[in-house]
Amino acid sequence: TPAIMDISNMGYGMTGVTLNASKGFIPNLLIGKIGAATALSNVKPSGGGHYIGSEVNGNIAYNFGPFMSLELHAAYLMLGDFYESKQSAYGSAVNGGIDGRPVNPWTAFLVFKWLMF
Q: Distance of CA 72 to CAs 22, 106, 108, Å?
């Protein structure tokens, strides 16, 4: 489930910043990436604030050859005061209708990519 449901952030708007850095530990074979992002809502929902949250993420990829890789990804999101709002003026409650802010989500997954023509 995304932190921001659609391009307009349920009609509240969004301003965000991302920063990524990558390094080829073994050039074209073993590559690591770290990233960070933060976002603000352009409109403050009732009961909440402008700060949507900040995320840190990273991955490490091993390239077997052209168009084939095995990648491990992980991310952690620290939710902001935007999610303290239960406002549902645009179809659904900002925080899912619970009392208070939801638990900070995280994810980790392994993916095998293979592009065939």
A: 14, 14, 7
Which tokens is 56 given? 């840190």
Helix (H, G, I), strand (E, B) or coil at 116: coil
CA distance 45 to 82: 7
pLDDT tens, residue order, the chain (117 aa) = 678 878 888 889 999 999 999 999 999 999 999 999 999 999 999 889 999 999 999 999 999 998 999 999 999 999 999 999 888 877 778 888 888 788 999 999 999 999 986
Dihedral over Cα of 84, 88, 90, 96: its sign: positive
